[in-house]
Amino acid sequence: MPTLHRTLPALRRLRLANAFFQQPARLRLRPAAQPLRSLHSSPQVRQEEKKASPTTSASSADHAPQDAPDRPQSKIKYTSDSYPDLKRDSRFKTVSKEDVEHFKKILGSEAAILDGVTNETGEEDFEQYNSDWMRKYRGQCRLVLKPETTEQVSGVLKYCNEQSLAVVPQGGNSGLVGGSVPVFDEIVINLSRLNKVRSFDDVSGVLVADAGVILQQADEYVGKQNHIFPLDLGAKGTCQIGANVATNAGGLRLLRYGSMHGNVLGLECVLPDGTIMDDLSKLRKNNTGYDLKQLFIGGEGTIGIITAISILCPQRSSAVNVAYFGLESYEKVMEAFKEAKKQLGEILSAFELMDRQSQSLYHQASGAKLPLEGEHPFYCLIETSGSNTEHDSEKLNAFLEHVMSEEIVSDGVVAESETQLQSLWACREGISEAGQHWGGVYKYDLSIPLPELYSLVEDARKMFESNGLMHTEDETFPVKDVVGYGHMGDSNLHLNVATRRYDKEVERALEPWVYEWVAKRQGSISAEHGLGLAKKAFIGYSRSETMIRLMGKIKETFDPKGIMNPYKYI
Amino acid sequence: MPTLHRTLPALRRLRLANAFFQQPARLRLRPAAQPLRSLHSSPQVRQEEKKASPTTSASSADHAPQDAPDRPQSKIKYTSDSYPDLKRDSRFKTVSKEDVEHFKKILGSEAAILDGVTNETGEEDFEQYNSDWMRKYRGQCRLVLKPETTEQVSGVLKYCNEQSLAVVPQGGNSGLVGGSVPVFDEIVINLSRLNKVRSFDDVSGVLVADAGVILQQADEYVGKQNHIFPLDLGAKGTCQIGANVATNAGGLRLLRYGSMHGNVLGLECVLPDGTIMDDLSKLRKNNTGYDLKQLFIGGEGTIGIITAISILCPQRSSAVNVAYFGLESYEKVMEAFKEAKKQLGEILSAFELMDRQSQSLYHQASGAKLPLEGEHPFYCLIETSGSNTEHDSEKLNAFLEHVMSEEIVSDGVVAESETQLQSLWACREGISEAGQHWGGVYKYDLSIPLPELYSLVEDARKMFESNGLMHTEDETFPVKDVVGYGHMGDSNLHLNVATRRYDKEVERALEPWVYEWVAKRQGSISAEHGLGLAKKAFIGYSRSETMIRLMGKIKETFDPKGIMNPYKYI
Asked: Which Pfam families does the annotation name (chains A, B) (predicted)?
């Protein structure tokens, strides 16, 4: 291989840019008191922090769902009030004192039950189980059960099924679509005490662990043995691996390691009638019948409770590099992505897209210096992860040289320290919160085929301009700007509409316009968040009637009495 | 990174070994007239070649299933004779002349129907549809339909369902468990004419193509645009991508790119009642309800017919390296695998295991010179694929230096040319046929957790020694040797029992002993071949009663009349 010509104009420009990039942007935009990950360190802490600053909490996640801009609230509205059409299903029994006695027998310890049925436990004690961290949903549950073993889950479900008691399986309760909180008086079955690692084989990389193990702990556990958990996401300090599987969580590592459908090797589930379905295989290959576990992956707790998972963990990469580019058009972004795949191939671990508007908002809101001089219509962040620092840098440099000399990218910088690396990521990760700066954000998390991915943003702008709702400077217009960014490598766009105030007219302009736009391109109205309660009504935009009908049959087959996570999903 | 010390003793040994390895082993052991891939070039050719040398054809596939050793046969036995307990299901109607007329109306062209109902089409014309290439199964179908569009498949199935006519979906008919041939008079729906590529996006790497596209053609198609199909297997010249998905084919690229459950993004299927289920998504992320397509992946045509697939194709690697080692114990093999994952990380694309017995058989049968001097209890073949030749060689050399200086491997060679690369692969790929040299082979394709993977081979030897059935030299013993090899990286063992003659006693000693052994370790009795007819009776060794019961419900939900590929699977 020829030596790199480091004096080429392109790389000279790159060096200049790197020299310019001496002052790293302020590390993360989020308020110091509320960094995203520590926010999620435990449900208790989370709730307290949230109370302290309710106006921004809803937007501190990159993947916050579409919603009205947040307003200070003293109390979260009951879901049954927000959704007046939802009525409690009369087939379900109300929990009695006898039921509680029975559960006490099954679970043994007093610590395993939060009981507002037989005693005066206050509503505030239930808040962390009854409401979500976005403060968007609130149920009326008066009984939380925390089984410690699969057998206890089985005993509980068997009884609930016999007695027609509705239940909501709950992990770290960090979901974004209201899937993990009750709507009415469903019993919460919280998996947090089912939290042991069962085994890890550092030759095959197969981890077997209880559903309630926290994602971050699972990652640290395998990390000590040079592996990584094949999923990473903002809520890793709170969310649980069983629930990650139940919601088919996407996150940051999907581009490289693929989805749960490929990585999960086995599951142990408890069916609604208490039957334990032991499919906790450690095998990569097992062609013996329908792969039933796949229905539980992304099944959102509607056909059973996942009690343990077996998952393939890849080797941990020792070398990580990050570069940040400016580009002149979306076509150039596509070209850059194609070249990155080609030249970086096996070491490419992230390809993130940010438009000019998103970087401008980020700059204005945070005051952080942007990495590149001048403005570009588009920006990309590329991350590589590999086993050899020198090789990876060389590949990255060759790639940079190519894309700059071919004028695919206009300008670029490469992080030369961990601080710079974090600053570059902040330009991407800070967008979500930046939009909140002027009021609130309508957020959509969508999958769109790559060639048309960005057109939605352009069309949304046109739509708002034509109906006179948007102006970047004039404060009398409700919409300040429309920004687009996301996981380009996964065809996953985050469409954010930054507004100055809550406005019904904006909402009416957006919905169902966005869903219809996405449906026309065979996109997905929920790329990685799932359906829960929030998207239940919109599934028809992403799935055919035939499929919805078949899904109904699957639900009926597994959960004939409908006790599992009712009112949601399909 | 420090420069490699090429004078280190380990690498000196390596160089010496490379010098020794001047005479490449004869390329591939298979008879020149019958190389595996050309054997599969078209069904017609295949059949003719097979007739010319029926005694070896059954063993030329690496993944041939367990079976009695092949004997020359003039005629393949009817499945209904081999399985006398199987009776034709009287619910199914016999095809009438009126039915054929109706199908003619749906399919239009005469070329789309092979009709032995209304005319005198001879049995030999049906042979390629009625029997499998292993010459193990033979059905009695008298009507083959070859739809050219999804709508035609829909029309055909709708009619069959209404009329209770049983069907067998058929791709390239290269399966190993009798899943793609009829048992009685089921109608064959052959997908070979549904064979268009619908689209390929070279930015996302997403290929959308009809089910009947030949695997090799799909790979070549995306290869022209620098991508690879994420599946490769011996029968690639014949097998069809829809059937690959329907059987969840594993093959050679699984270690690197994972299974169909992760790579297939969408499917278009026709349900038994003719409904077209359009789930042909091109998205990597789509969390909107149960992932129904997963049931069709590995569903073996029992709940519907896959008519098109959407699949993620990775970037093609430009650099490929192959190394071959000798090791002193299975523990060392595990260590080498661990080190390979660690040091070769993202470029590791194959880690294959061969025991001494397998290499000895290969040497004796082929006369090929083995790559290493002296004997070792175990051998491994490692392949790397990456985007940069120099980097990959450097990584591989560093790895070799490490494993040799740490005495994890005892000796090794690295291919320095394409010819040597092929010769090294021949040592692995030639085993299957070598075993056949003395008579025949009982073959098992199993998944076993890695730590115990090789114990099965040792236990099988002990078993045969204790019951006096095995001797490597003495011709009076039926079993010559037991060899173990396979896809170590996928925990996939091929257990081959090389015999001198067909012997009922050997068979009785092996079954159900092997299945019980595997079941005790939560292994899989069918790693990648599926159930078909061959393994239907044994599913209980790999799946619980609960799961089999649930699978039955899935089948009933999708195919209430049971017309899809009857008598097989679960």
From this structure: FAD-oxidase_C, FAD_binding_4
